[in-house]
């Protein structure tokens, strides 16, 4: 294997207590050794840390006090020899160390190149490499856990299992094609294929469902409260915030006029979006028309539509219903302490199957039922966060969707009595798509593109 030795600063740039310059490649130890005053790094035991001084070869003076970790391949992240030079965290000092190792023949690493080497050397598969990237970007503990599990190879193992199932069916068909005289093989291929594709189909569907739930748990449900003036929107917002611990109130880095209130409803973070657009929904339809308000509202995962129980339905209510057609809606009939005036038949008709919850928000009554409706809408039964292997990566989700669709083609084909060697094409395609998740069948250019998204030094 012919590779050069790469290097980069692998801790975040800034004023940390320490910073690390990492080297990986055949010359990692030799290069470090030429500028290190202390023990001979070429002869120290692998996976040990050495204290010493770094010499600037241009002046022969001590440039830095350092701790150097020496790790010999293949038991390293890249499977190559790796050296990590720990130095003071200041920008000047870490850059000086980097320049010194560059002057000794190391090459500055491209973004993601360490992880790319780990992948190319078979240390990790592609989904694990992407998990490293997700880990770097993870904002919450939950997102971190998902990435960690993925890095651990949980998703890879599951994907491999599914591919194995598909491969078995393909093998059977091959036997069948090679020995057409065996009728029972033909019979069996068909049965096995139906059975296996069903299993794999259900499993991919489950992964996608979990992906959706994982996204909700990580990012929260963007929730918009809408309704005409005075129906009780503010009361609902207050009741939700009052009954549930608010998680975060402001997201740093967002503009002042987009303030988001997070509340925790049975483990589901609701992001009560309070953007200018949605806050103004009291007359949003009137102001900007049904189509455009649809556009604004479409960004929401959940619409809480408040109606006044003690008043007739108005045109404004009906217009709002038009604007939220096709979205995920829960209808709240508020002010049930007052005499009923609303036409329930009509409400049920335009609600078209959405849950309807009755509340008396002035007394904070009905919030429990509303919370149950929310939780039932997005999570059937209990939320299990413990052992779930959430798929969180957009590329993986895309591939799973494609795999599901090509498997559907195969199943439809079988149903329609298509010859099995034709059905097999779709099964093979599914197998390939799943392979792309773990990097078995991916194109080199895709690999380059993926790794270039990494931060430097990873
Ligand atoms: P918004 O304009 O939709 O935000 O409505 P608000 O939450 O500001 O409420 C409008 C008025 O209705 C306020 O005076 C509330 O006190 C009152 N209100 C809210 N919920 C109820 C309820 O359940 N019963 C009664 N009787 N009044 C309510
Ligand atoms: Zn209000």
Beta-strand percent range: 15-25%
Any idea of the CATH topology of the largest domain? Rossmann fold
Shape: flat
What strand line-up does the widest sheet have? 3-4-5-6-2-1-7
Roughly how much helix do the residues carry, as a percent range? 40-55%
Domain TrmE-type G: 220-379
InterPro entries: G_TrmE, GTP-bd, GTP-bd_TrmE_N, GTPase_MnmE, MnmE_dom2, MnmE_helical, P-loop_NTPase, Small_GTP-bd
Binding site for GTP: 230-235, 249-255, 274-277
Organism: Terrihalobacillus insolitus
Q: What are the SSEs and their pairings?
A:
Elements: E1 6-9, E2 18-24, H1 28-34, E3 36-37, E4 48-56, E5 61-71, E6 82-88, H2 91-103, E7 107-108, H3 113-120, H4 126-137, H5 141-151, H6 154-178, H7 183-219, E8 221-226, H8 233-243, E9 259-265, E10 268-274, H9 276-279, H10 284-298, E11 302-308, H11 315-323, E12 329-334, H12 344-351, E13 356-359, H13 367-378, H14 394-415, H15 420-438, H16 444-451
Parallel strand pairs: 1-7, 8-10, 8-11, 11-12, 12-13
Antiparallel strand pairs: 1-2, 2-6, 3-4, 4-5, 5-6, 9-10
Helix pairs in contact: 4-5, 6-7, 6-15, 7-14, 10-11, 14-15
This protein binds guanosine-5'-diphosphate and zinc ion (ZN).
The site of guanosine-5'-diphosphate has 15 residues, from α8.
């Amino acid at each position: 294997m012919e590779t050069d030795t790469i290097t980069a600063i692998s801790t975040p740039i800034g004023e940390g207590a320490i910073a690390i310059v990492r080297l990986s490649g055949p010359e990692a130890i030799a290069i470090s050794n030429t500028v290190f005053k202390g023990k001979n790094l070429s002869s120290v035991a692998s996976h040990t840390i050495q204290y010493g001084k770094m010499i600037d070869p241009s002046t022969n003076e001590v440039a830095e006090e350092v701790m150097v970790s020496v790790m010999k391949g293949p038991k390293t992240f890249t499977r190559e020899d790796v050296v990590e030079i720990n130095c003071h965290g200041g920008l000047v000092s870490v850059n000086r160390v980097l320049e010194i190792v560059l002057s000794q023949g190391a090459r500055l690493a491209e973004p993601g190149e360490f992880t790319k080497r780990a992948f190319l050397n078979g240390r990790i598969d592609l989904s694990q490499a992407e998990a490293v990237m997700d880990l770097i970007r993870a904002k919450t503990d939950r997102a971190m856990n998902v990435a960690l599990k993925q890095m651990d190879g949980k998703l890879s193992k599951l994907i491999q299992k599914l591919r194995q199932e598909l491969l078995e069916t393909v093998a059977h068909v091959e036997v069948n094609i090679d020995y057409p005289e065996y009728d029972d093989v033909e019979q069996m291929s068909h049965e096995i294929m139906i059975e296996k594709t069903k299993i794999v189909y259900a499993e991919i569907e489950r992964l996608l469902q979990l992906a959706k739930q994982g996204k909700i748990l990580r990012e929260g449900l963007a929730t918009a409260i809408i309704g005409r003036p005075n129906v009780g929107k503010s009361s609902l917002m207050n009741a939700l915030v009052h009954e549930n611990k608010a998680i975060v109130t402001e997201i740093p880095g967002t503009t002042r006029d987009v303030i988001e209130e997070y509340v925790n409803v049975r483990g589901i973070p609701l992001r009560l979006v309070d953007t200018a657009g949605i806050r103004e929904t009291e007359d949003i339809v009137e102001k900007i028309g049904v189509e455009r308000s649809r556009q604004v509202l479409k960004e929401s995962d959940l619409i809480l539509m408040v109606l006044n129980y003690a008043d007739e339905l108005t045109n404004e209510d009906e217009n709002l219903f038009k604007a939220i057609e096709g979205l995920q809606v829960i209808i709240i009939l508020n002010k049930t302490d007052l005499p009923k005036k609303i036409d329930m038949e009509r409400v049920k008709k335009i609600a078209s199957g959405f849950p309807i919850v009755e509340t008396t928000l002035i007394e904070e009554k009905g919030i429990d039922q509303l919370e149950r409706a929310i939780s039932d809408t997005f999570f059937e039964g209990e939320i299990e966060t413990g052992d779930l292997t959430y798929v969180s990566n957009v590329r993986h989700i895309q591939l799973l969707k494609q795999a599901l669709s090509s498997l559907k083609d195969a199943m439809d084909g079988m149903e329609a009595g298509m010859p099995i060697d034709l059905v097999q094409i779709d099964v093979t395609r599914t197998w390939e798509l799943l392979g792309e998740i773990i990097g078995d069948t991916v194109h080199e250019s895709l690999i380059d593109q993926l790794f270039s998204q990494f931060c430097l030094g990873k």
